[in-house]
Write a structure and sequence with these properties.
Helix content is about 25%, strand content about 35%. By secondary structure, the protein is of the alpha+beta class. The chain has one domain: Thiol Ester Dehydrase, Chain A. Strands 1-3-4-5-2 form a 5-stranded antiparallel sheet, covered by helices on one side. A hairpin with a 2-residue loop joins strand 3 and strand 4. The radius of gyration is 17 Å and the shape is elongated. One of its GO terms (molecular function) is fatty acid synthase activity. This is Dehydratase. Pfam families: MaoC_dehydratas.
């Protein structure tokens, strides 16, 4: 964990990058078991093709979990004040998720020093899959 101090942070600073292994069928099966989300579009190629998809694809919440890991690799979970995102693309098999965060604002609220971070999860081609914002309290 790489905890930063509020006074050392500048707008535009980057949260340490998080790159994950390529999404494969095992990743999806393991996520199904861990999350309880057994939607067949994520594990059954015949079902996915009937839905007019070329193959199964990753759960959106898997990428959301990766963004959560980006944040908790940087600060302890209890310092996260808000965390929101929107889904902007589908993560296909073979995509390599990369999560990034950029400090967009420094401010004080409720007696705490906080930063607003713009976060996103993209694939190896730079195609955005999730975009969001987190607010983190720093010492």
């Amino acid at each position: 964990m790489n905890i930063s101090q509020y006074n050392d942070i500048q707008i535009g600073d980057q949260v340490p990058l998080l790159t994950l292994p390529a999404v494969n069928r095992t990743t999806l099966a393991l996520y199904c078991g861990a999350s309880g989300d057994h939607n067949p579009i994520h594990v059954d190629i015949d079902f996915a093709r009937k839905a007019r998809m070329p193959d199964v694809f990753a759960h959106g919440m898997l990428s959301a979990a990766y963004l959560g890991r980006l944040l908790t690799n940087w600060v302890p979970q209890q310092q996260i004040r808000s965390f929101s995102m929107r889904f902007t693309g589908i993560t296909q098999l073979g995509h390599i998720p990369t999560c990034t965060g950029t400090v967009a604002e420094k401010f004080e609220a409720d007696g705490e020093k906080r930063v607003r971070i713009e976060i996103k999860c993209s694939n190896q081609y730079g195609e955005e899959k999730l975009a969001g914002v987190a607010v983190v309290a720093l010492a």
